[in-house]
Design brief:
Elements lengths: L1 H8 L4 E6 L7 H9 L5 E8 L5 H14 L4 E6 L5 H4 L7 H16 L4 E4 L4 E5 L15 E4 L3 H10 L2 E2 L7 H16 L11 E8 L3 H18 L1 H7 L3 H10 L6 H8 L4 H7 L1 E3 L1 H13 L4 E6 L4 H8 L4
Parallel strand pairs: 1-2, 2-3, 3-6, 6-7, 8-9, 8-10
Antiparallel strand pairs: 4-5
Length: 315
């Protein structure tokens, strides 16, 4: 909460809270951020569409908008396996499910009474039941966290924004923007009509080695556990195979440390903004030059305030 206040003071536009792995829920900290700030936007980056049904998603984001009017962004994603399977969720037809959830959530937030009988979403004559509260449409844009090009194309068609993934190289963005453009063209939009914030792992320290080592463990974990993201970035299959021999799921800290010794500095810097302040600024500029409209900095180094100072518009 103190860091979000500091980021607001330094001119940051938004703060995003993840809700992907079984670590922290997104909604509780988002509410806390909204309660202690006045201007900064607050987004979920991102929440899955399976574990909360569309009606509950809409009521949740309506509540957040009551707390921080006009400052909340609903970021949704299709989640990933094996985590989804391990908690009993079958991610069948993720494109269909995403389309249906976005439609129902958007219509409920627009203060409509909604009946919808889809393959996944089923609601019968429901609306957000405000009772004694003021009834009003909620200004909550919907963003989709997409990695694969089919989901990216759907995002261009139905979403207000795309949360571009992290641990991808800037080259990945060219393909992503092309897919967004194809989807946007289906509804007479262009890629410029779609906001494109991007998660960027950022490990900044004046000690370059310390910064790189600070990012290496996370990079290693994702190399082993989410190879679909890594393949999209152009990481070699040989490296992914070698790391896969060391890591299990869920990986122990010792396994991640052992596997990290296989990851060279150039791979860390290919898919993260890690190193000295100048190196991190240059890497983030690459993502912006390839289509990111606003970097979402995922801090890994110990001094988060240094990262805020290095990138803060108000510095």
């Amino acid at each position: 909460m103190e860091l979000v206040q500091y980021a607001e003071q330094r001119g940051f536009d938004a703060v995003w809270q993840a809700d992907s792995r079984l670590v922290r829920d997104a909604i509780v900290p988002m509410a806390a951020f909204g309660a202690v700030t006045d201007r900064i936007k607050i987004g979920s980056g991102v929440m899955d569409v399976w574990s909360r049904n569309p009606a509950r998603l809409a009521s949740t984001f309506s509540t957040l908008d009551d707390l921080a009017p006009g400052r909340v962004i609903c970021g949704l994603g299709a989640w990933w396996d094996p985590l989804a399977a391990k908690v009993g969720i079958k991610r069948d037809k993720p494109l269909r499910v995403m389309r249906e959830v976005v439609e129902v959530v958007r219509r409920l937030l627009a203060n409509e009474e909604v009946t919808f009988d889809g393959e996944y979403a089923h609601v019968d004559g429901i609306e957000l039941d405000y009772v004694y509260q003021e009834r009003r449409p909620k200004d909550v844009p919907i963003y989709i966290g997409a990695t694969g090009m089919q989901m990216m194309e759907l995002t261009g068609e139905i979403a207000d924004g795309a949360v571009l993934n992290y641990l991808v190289s800037p080259k990945y963005n060219s393909e992503a923007l092309a897919a967004l453009a194809r989807g946007a063209a289906k509804v007479d939009r262009t890629v410029d009509d779609i906001d494109r914030p991007q998660l960027i792992v950022c490990s900044v320290d004046r000690d370059r080695k310390k910064a790189l080592d600070g990012a290496r463990l996370l990079v290693t974990q994702y190399l082993g556990q989410q190879p679909h993201i890594m393949k999209a970035s152009g990481v070699s299959s040989d490296l992914l195979d070698e790391i896969g021999k060391v890591l299990t799921w869920p990986a122990t800290h010792d396994e991640v440390v052992r596997a990290s010794k296989l990851v060279p500095d150039e791979v860390v810097q290919m898919i993260t903004a890690s190193g000295t302040p100048d190196e991190c600024q240059a890497k983030v500029a690459e993502y912006i030059a390839t289509g990111c409209t606003c970097p979402i900095l995922y801090p890994l180094a110990d001094d988060v305030r240094l990262m805020i100072d290095v990138f803060g518009p108000g510095r």
